[in-house]
Structure formats: structure tokens, C-alpha cells
Write a structure and sequence with these properties.
The active site is at 176 (nucleophile and sulfur donor). The protein has helices at residues 4-18, 29-42, 58-71, 86-89, 95-113, 134-140, 146-149, 154-163, 189-203, 228-233, 235-244, 264-277; strands at residues 21-24, 46-52, 74-79, 118-120, 210-215, 218-223, 249-252. By secondary structure, the protein is α/β, with parallel strands linked by helices. The chain is globular and about 55 Å long.
Length: 279
């Protein structure tokens, strides 16, 4: 595996050859790193685009605006309302495909208007090991993932971001709010808003890495194990506020925070099918 600094040079070369780019910019670790490097290489020939939507926490939108100003890049905000797409609202395991199709179609329109040939996203090399149906939409729309292409891992990107003095280097992962819903539970604006407000209750305690998973009347809280004691110390206040939001039961997942926990059911179903077919 190449050293991160070599991968960085490969990334810069790749961007240089493109000349002008539109980048999907969420304000997360990966897309902020990509926008920063692209801006250093291409300057005003970079446009960062952020989608304002019910699935995107309002605090993250403000953070994206702040980071774009800090970098100095031209920043466009578009409205992308996935909750108006029926296939997305149904929340099947390929939900992300419809979300990415909606979002990157908007970015392609911007690129066409600006006469730019390349639309980029922040997928990194580690993402290839996860269940990500949205990648199919990226392939169909010819979206380029340069971090993945030069084999930059999440660890590489965090370390390089720290060297570049990007304050996102240790930012917790922040998937869209739709990722809080088990497959099959219908996604609505009201439910997305409820989850966002519930997570803000926990975040206001100073806990950075968390998820509130929506199981109809049950809220399942995931935090790192080191933060569980703090959560328990404020349990009465948390339960009260969650019930005001409409939850009947409030639970703490003893396994703690983990990415893609709602995909565990897919992995279990796969094992079950394999066991049955093996008889």
C-alpha cells in the first residue's frame, strides 16, 4: 500500500488533469478534505455543492457553510427533497440508490450549466467494504470518486486533514438522518425532524458520536461505551424530552455506537439463507 503522501500527490495530479470540477460537499471529513485539496490545486475552478434537505441535519448545513467560507471555495446550496421520491420513502435496502440519484442529478445539472465535465464525490477506499447501494447511482451518472481511485482510506484522510489544519480531521461520521430508520419503516419529514431533535438532546450533553435509531414508538440510542455513564446520569431528563417528542420507550443499546448497525439484519438474513441453502 502506498504512503498517504504519495496518494495525496496522485490525487492532486488527478484533479489537475480534470481542470474544472463540481464537488458534492457535505462538510464531513472526506468531502471537506477533497474540496480543500481541489481548491489548492484548481482555485476558482472548483464549485462545492451542498444539498439542503430534510435528511440533512440543520447543524451540518451551517457547518458546511462555515467550512466553505474558511476554504474560500465557491459554494452553492440546492434543495434536494428525497422525501418526495416514493421509492425513497418506502425505505427498502436500496434506499440510498434513490437518494444519490436525486442528489447527483442536481449536481449534473449544475455542472452542465457551468460547462464543467466532472462531478466528484467524497467516497473513500474504505467505503468499498460497506453496503452502499448509492454507488450504483454514482456509476450510472458517471460521478468520479477520486479519493477511492487513489486508494485514500479514512485513516489517511484524517491524518492528512490534521496536517492541513482542517478542524474536521477528528469529526465524527455523520450519515444522513434516513440511516436512523430500519428498512421497511416509512420515512417522512415529521419522523426525520423527530430524530434530529432527539439527537440534539444527546448532543447537548457534549456527546459527539451518537445515533438515535427510530423503531416506531421506540428510540434506540447508540453512543460510545465511554459516554454511557454520562447518558445514564441524565436519563430522567432524556426520557422526559424524548417522550415529549412522541417516543413511548427510550432504550440504550449496550453494544454501543457502530456504523451501519441497521445493516446487521441484512447480514443475518444472508447467513440464514446460506444456512438453509446448505442443507
Amino acid at each position: 500500500m502506498q504512503e498517504p503522501t504519495i496518494k495525496m500527490e496522485n490525487l492532486k495530479d488527478k484533479l489537475r488533469r480534470m481542470g474544472r470540477v463540481v464537488i458534492a460537499f457535505s462538510g464531513g471529513v472526506d468531502s471537506t478534505f477533497l474540496v480543500k485539496v481541489a481548491y489548492e490545486v484548481l482555485g476558482k475552478n472548483v464549485i462545492a455543492v451542498t444539498a439542503a434537505s430534510s435528511t440533512y441535519p440543520k447543524t451540518e448545513l451551517e457547518e458546511a457553510k462555515r467550512l466553505a467560507r474558511l476554504i474560500g471555495v465557491r459554494h452553492i446550496i440546492v434543495n434536494s427533497e428525497e422525501t418526495e421520491v416514493e421509492n425513497f420513502k418506502q425505505n427498502s435496502p436500496n434506499r440510498c440508490y434513490y437518494c444519490k440519484k436525486e442528489l447527483f442529478s442536481r449536481l449534473k445539472e449544475i455542472a452542465k450549466k457551468e460547462k464543467i465535465n466532472y462531478v466528484l464525490d467524497g467516497t473513500n477506499y474504505d467505503d468499498l467494504t460497506d453496503f452502499r447501494p448509492g454507488m450504483k447511482a454514482l456509476r450510472e451518472l458517471n460521478i468520479i470518486s477520486p479519493l477511492k481511485d487513489v486508494k485514500l482510506t479514512k485513516e489517511d484522510i484524517r491524518n492528512l486533514s490534521k496536517l492541513m489544519n482542517l478542524d474536521t480531521w477528528d469529526k465524527p461520521a455523520c450519515a444522513c438522518l434516513a440511516s436512523r430508520f430500519p428498512y421497511g419503516i416509512r420515512i417522512t419529514k415529521e419522523r426525520l425532524d423527530r430524530v434530529e431533535k432527539a439527537e440534539n438532546v444527546i448532543r447537548n450533553l457534549g456527546i459527539r458520536q451518537l445515533r438515535v435509531r427510530y423503531h416506531n414508538e421506540i428510540a434506540r440510542i447508540e453512543v460510545n461505551k465511554k459516554d454511557m455513564q454520562l447518558l445514564l446520569e441524565h436519563s430522567d431528563s432524556i426520557v422526559k424530552k424524548f417522550k415529549e417528542l412522541g417516543f413511548i420507550y427510550v432504550t440504550l443499546d449496550m453494544e454501543g455506537y457502530r456504523t451501519g448497525s441497521l445493516n446487521e439484519v441484512l447480514r443475518n438474513e444472508g447467513r440464514d439463507r446460506k444456512n438453509v441453502e446448505g442443507f
